[in-house]
Every structure is written in C-alpha cells, then in structure tokens.
Amino acid sequence: MPESETQRSPEEPISPLKKLRLKAGLTQAELAKQIPDKTGTGTLSQRAISAWERGEYQPELTIPQMKALCKALDVTLDELPDDVRPADF
Predict the structure, then answer these.
(1) The pTM is what?
(2) 72 by DSSP, 3-state: which?
(3) How many structural domains compose the chain?
(4) Is the pLDDT of residue 25 over 90?
(5) Dist. CA 20–CA 38, nearest whole Å
(6) Which SS3 state, helix, strand or coil, does residue 40 take?
(7) Whole-number Å distance between alpha carbons of 37 and 62
(8) Residue 70 to residue 68: CA distance in whole angstroms
(9) Domain assignment of residue 49, yes or no
(10) Residue 64 located in a structural domain
C-alpha cells in the first residue's frame, strides 16, 4: 500500500469508507476494480474512490454496485456508513 494512504497527520479526519477499505487491505485502485460502472461494461476509477473518501461527493450506486462494494469490503449493507465523507464535513 502506498505510504500516502497509510500515513496521515493525527488531526486529519479519516473517511469511514477509507477505514473499511484499509481494514479490507485494499488500495483505492483495487477497490475500484471490484465495482462495476453503471453501464456494466467497465469498473469504477481509483479517482472516484478517492473523491468519495475526500468528501468531494457522495456516491450514488446501483444495486449491483452496492453488492460489489459490500463484497469487496466484506461487510453487509447495514455495515456501510450512511455518509462516506471524513468527519470534518
């Protein structure tokens, strides 16, 4: 895992999605590759995962995408956070 993903300042809030991703041992790119895009012909980009974790926008996922996210993170739908942004938002 890149150092930038594991090292952060103590004051920097961390996204609940990032916590789940790190617990699952995945990089942003690895997670993105496990989630289909809305057309079903490709996968999400690392950039999308990064934007969610930074709080740039909230994900709007289809049911197949939600299932893939839960499977990748090894959590149930109920265990996913309602808000994936860092706590300072």
Answers:
(1) 0.84
(2) helix
(3) 1
(4) yes
(5) 22
(6) coil
(7) 9
(8) 5
(9) yes
(10) yes
Q: Which tokens belong to 77?
A: 């739908």
Confidence of residue 3 (pLDDT cuts 50, 70, 90): very low
Instruction: Determine contact, residues 81/14, Cβ cutoff 8 Å.
Output: no
pLDDT digits (tens, 9 = 90+) for 68-81: 999 999 999 999 99
82: DSSP letter: S
In a domain, 56, yes or no: yes
What confidence tens digit (pLDDT) does each residue in 32-54 have? Answer: 999 999 999 999 999 999 999 99
Helix residue ranges, H only, 1-89: 3-6, 16-23, 28-33, 46-54, 63-73
* 37 part of a folded domain: yes
- Which residue is it, tokens 């090894």? 74
Q: What is the CATH number of the domain that holds 49?
A: 1.10.260
